Amino acid sequence: MKAVLEFENIVRAYKKGVPVLNGVSFALAEGEVVGLLGRNGAGKTTLIRIAMGLLYPQEGSVRVFGISPTDDPVAVKQRIGYVSEDQILPPGSSVSDLIGFHRYLFPRWDAALERQLLDRFGLSPKAKIARLSKGEARQVALLCAICHRPDLLLLDEPGGGLDPAARREFLEASIQLLNREGSAILFSSHHMSDVERLGGRVVLLDQGKVCLDCDLDMIREDLCVAIIPQAWVPDAAALERVPGCLRVRQMSGEEWHAVFHGSPDDVRTRLQPLLGSAGIECMRVPLEELFIELVGGKPSEVAL
Amino acid sequence: MRIFVAPSAELPLYRQIMRQIAEAIAGGRLMPGDKLDSHRDLAEQLVIAPLTVKKAYDELEALGYIETQRGRGTFVCAKPPQISIGKQREQLRAAARLLLSEAYLNGFDYNAVLKIIKEADAEILLGRLKEIP
Lengths: 304, 133
Prior knowledge:
The complex is a heterodimer.
Chain A: E1 3-15, E2 18-29, E3 33-38, H1 44-52, E4 59-64, H2 73-77, E5 80-84, H3 95-105, H4 111-121, H5 134-146, E6 152-156, H6 164-181, E7 184-188, H7 192-198, E8 201-206, E9 209-215, H8 216-222, E10 223-229, H9 236-240, E11 245-251, E12 255-261, H10 264-275, E13 281-283, H11 287-295
Helix pairs in contact in A: 4-5, 5-6
Chain B: H1 13-26, E1 35-36, H2 39-46, H3 50-63, E2 66-69, E3 73-76, H4 85-105, H5 110-126
Antiparallel strand pairs in B: 1-3, 2-3
């Protein structure tokens, strides 16, 4: 399959010697949906801005449809849609002015889709942007981002600050786009239920690197968490050496929480040399818990 | 039939869909030859990625519950899937042991469990099973 977006060894720092992204590589195939996860400050927004050509990587390269977004910004942007949580729309213009501007910029503009979305969101074309609620403004941004039927949609925390109903409408429109156009989507989100609804694959950023890049269903069925008393295994490194161990963290109550690849039964077998016949708790956990097990429990070293 | 999904449940979404369709076929709410929603329509109804629904349909098709006829749609198979009876019994017996031990721990007796099973059966037949455990 052809890649629509490729990050290769991206490095980017805002402060010298403190990289936010420190060698990030992954790619999106045509029509693929990837949820970009990570804690605040993990570099999700930075990465999406690099894909948009709004930021340069200091090392590494980014290719969108095989082109660098800073070499030929027009060719790239014509085929991209972009919505972010802190996007600023011109407050003084009306909804119809803003849409008219986009229609003029994009030859592929789909007027029927525009009417349908205006109708569905219940947006009044005459309304001034400044008077819209946060949810309505985000809907206008989405409309402008998808009516030219982009091949790649970049969504930076699109549900951030929206109420559950507005978030759901946003998801509905995105899924319709997936259905009709087969666009590829890269979206960042802190809402794990939205990630499960939209996502096919998940990329988790931590400490400037990709800490997990995996099919969503695989994560749900192929990762589990073991809870081990520290009295039995005093040393975290011993657990980290067990095959398939992704992360160990120390919990209050003198326990280790360790994330492993494999089914709970597999993992119990692999732990047996370390623990003998002692039975331990080992279970599959929902995405939100897994996120916390993988990147929680310590301050992100790359913040600020 | 109506399908419900719960994104934060223990089962992945595609498995939740598989289970509900298989249950509907077992409970007679879906009959051989009945047409299912297209995977794209169901994805829009449930507000989940079309590929997730497609995965559920593909797996159900591989198991012999449903079949896709090109250009016509997806239908419940005329013949129920052939599953090894012995293996199926073994799995059921393991599940029953689990159910019973949990019930006894919580102070239910055997007859109380039977009554609960009957109630659950009625729920499946009436199609009131809304949430997947």
